[in-house]
Design a protein that fits this description.
Two copies of one chain form a homodimer. By secondary structure, the first copy, chain A, is of the alpha/beta class. Chain A has ten helices and 16 strands. Chain A is globular.
């Protein structure tokens, strides 16, 4: 009998998740019932959004039920199938969970992927997955950057942020990236071609605001926001007239048990007649092929570079997930499950 | 020699303005130099925005210089003129100051007005001024309300809010107004035809949120925000998918010496893919005639009712201004200067 290791959420985190909020269990794997198939998960995406799904606050998806494995986008191969559209050996990606095997009902985000053209199937979790597509549609559709404008990206060394910066550059914008620590800031300049890198560590709100002002004396036209807190507030203090803020994530406050900080300087939206757009990639599913094709072309032309930070082993899921919040990861965080 | 009483800002308020931040002085009135004219101010508009102009925080206008009279939109008659376009007796409105007489340079917002068609020249400071036009363009252009949608208005008994609610109703929307105290809530229902009135006084954030949820079980499609703080946060907890938030003012925090509260629940913009637009009427100057004409038609048809709360006497400027923050005013706050 096959054993399925499953990384369960057993308690809702209060502030930063702790190891005891999760439990790695072993369960027998049953064959798929009619209409479903079993997916052997090879890679799982680790994303800040998962922290939100662990809470029971109303959100765009139901909370992960307690006692169930942590929801995650995965890519893997069909192990056994009781539905005609999926055959053993097919590569498939979808919204599954942190576990060796997922029982999948076709539909929703589940789709076959062609791994023959990519360097690694994990790229369907980074550049060709929600991360790359969030950067692509978030920046271009919600941000509407124009050539010559200045784009400010927070979390700029992360999976989404690094792609946003490169797309903005391709579109003829001046790019300013904010990240934590000198190593990440060096990557911003050397790998992702940001014009300016700002290290937020050790800076007060006013120092951060002054650093942005020095880098963008005429203000920023687009903010792509992944972080929130002081970083968002400093950005809001440096808006150009009619700026667009793409609100993609607020990782700085996901573990804040004391409540939401939000956008304290929202008054600046009035001063600069700026607009803040809440962005979620789920709205762009019908256009995924268009986005992925363009991202692939840029990759092939050497104009887009995507880093993946791959940790190995389901037993390391907690430690790997927490790197998103400590900032230890260097690129899109991925967990390799099948070794 | 004519004496000009002038209501000066002599100190930047720290938190709520106090009487000692101002000084009413008497100065001799000089004749206008070439190219300028002297306006006898009959009515002055008192607006929350003036509190912002008293601060030296960067904003959409330079701060009122210390020792100068408090900037205000006024309407009055030309007293004497040294420019050909304006003759003594002409009625004029413009961005002037709280003083008996203003020395005016033609241009900017200054414009002649035809008082023969209006009930009182003060209407150029309410329905046909920035207040009515902010409601008109803010709701219709930034808010884009559709018939059948639900519109939530904060500060709903105020100058802007009361007009927003009535326009939303004319456009076929369901309207929910938030105001302070039973008298204002009664006015919301009886005079401004709101479908639901919510009294925010004595309610916690969660109670306020629950009251909005009860009034709009499917969420609110448009928020017209004049207040901020708990009221904005409660609104953000009740957004319908793809809601639009027109950020027009944040009166709850203008006197907050401790710093900005902003929008703590800005995360909900992502959850609901909502958009927050900073709105300032100054962007719509070229379309003022269009807006004023439509507002006038609705007035003539009896579909739009605008209340003015007129206090009398420059010596009462401070007390009248502070009613904006205590909520004592019943309608658009106006100061009658010439008696």
């Amino acid at each position: 009998m096959t054993i399925n290791r499953r990384f369960l959420l057993v308690r809702r985190p209060n502030g930063a998740p702790v190891a005891a909020d999760f439990s790695l269990i072993e369960a027998p794997l049953a064959p798929p019932p009619p209409g479903k198939f079993i997916l052997r998960n090879h890679f799982a995406s680790l994303d800040p959004a998962q922290r939100g799904w662990m809470s029971d606050e109303p959100s765009y998806m139901p909370p992960i039920p307690l006692g169930e494995p942590v929801r995650a986008t995965t890519v893997g191969r069909v192990e056994s199938s009781a539905c005609p559209e999926y055959a053993p050996g097919d590569w498939v990606m979808g919204l599954n969970a942190l576990e060796d095997f997922s029982l999948v009902t076709p539909g929703g985000f589940t789709a076959k992927v062609d791994v023959s053209k990519v360097a690694s199937p994990s790229q369907f979790l980074s550049v060709f997955g929600a991360v790359g597509l969030t950067a692509y549609f978030g920046l271009l559709e919600a941000g509407q950057p124009q050539a010559g404008e200045t784009v400010l990206v927070s979390g700029a060394a992360g999976g989404v942020g690094s792609v946003v910066g490169q797309i903005a550059k391709i579109k003829g914008c001046r790019t300013i990236g904010i990240a934590g620590g000198p190593a990440k800031c060096r990557r911003l300049l050397e790998e992702y071609h940001f014009d300016v890198a700002i290290d937020y560590r050790g800076k007060t709100l006013q120092q951060l605001s002054a650093a942005i002002a020095a880098a963008a004396p005429r203000g920023v036209n687009v903010i792509f926001e992944n972080v929130g807190g002081d970083i968002l507030d400093a950005g809001l203090q440096n808006l150009a007239m009619r700026a667009r803020i793409v609100l993609c994530g607020l990782i700085s406050e996901y573990n804040n048990a004391a409540g939401h900080v939000g956008a304290r300087n929202v008054w600046q939206l009035i001063v600069k007649r700026a607009t803040m757009h809440g962005f979620l990639i789920a709205d762009y599913v019908p256009r995924f092929a268009e986005g992925a094709a363009q991202l692939g072309l840029w990759m092939a032309e050497g104009r887009l570079h995507v880093d993946e930070h791959i940790d190995v082993g389901l037993e390391n899921a907690y430690a790997a997930f927490m790197k998103l919040f400590s900032g230890e990861n260097q690129g899109k965080m991925v967990l390799k499950i099948a070794t």
